[in-house]
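URGENT: need a sanity check before tomorrow's submission.

F., can you look over the Calcium-binding protein record below? I want to be sure the sequence and structure line up before it goes out.
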Amino acid sequence: MAVGAAAVFAGVAAAPAGAAEGGVSFTRVQVNGGKPIVIGVSKEVAVPVTFRMATTRRWEWPAVFLYRSNTDDRLWHAIETGDCIPAGRGVCDIKETMFFDPSVWDMDNSEAGAWKVAAEVHFEDDGGDTDDEGLTAYVKRNSRLTVNASPEPVAKGKTLTVTGKVTRADWETRKYASYPGRRVSLQFKPTGTTTYTTVKKVYANNSGNLSTTVKASKTGTWRWAYYGNTTTGPSTSTGDNVVVR
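Structure tokens as predicted:
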């Protein structure tokens, strides 16, 4: 499990009142704006979290976190929780940041995929409360694509070969590895336009390599686009501009 260093909390103890009976209620929970959390192999990823908390008790250390089989099976490397922004009697709006850094903390590839979302708070007079929020957050391995179109330039009507490779982050080796069998879109943008159009779809071979041919008709830019899945984030290659003469 990739639970890392101790969390860093900046929450200020308060004495709110008027929360629901039972200790605390959490609402308006949002992790990364509802978007997947995509993590590579070398850069820290800071994930914004917001939530509202209401309680009748003095508190410290509120946090939203990700878990799977039980609330002890957590995924985070560090958490920073901001101060209470009053939103009514006994109600706080709170901003949090989850940090994930695969270059420092070990991550297993099996940790990619769906995670549940829970919120908790510790009380000043001992004890605490933890609630499942009924939300799902996806943590994904980053993917990458390369592209090369040749020959350059090319005569109009002649065959143009477009190649590339799709790879994704291997959290265990901290390197990018071939991602075979992916269905990837070949896209084209004519010079003078701003929109790419999908020309065809190609499957990567067992080494993650992509290759296809098209007829050259006009000058423009070629690229590959992969739309991702439940464990892997989407990506697009840079563009390769080819002049057609």
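My own read: The CA atoms of residues 67 and 73 lie 5 Å apart. The two ends are 56 Å apart (CA to CA). If you see anything odd, call me.
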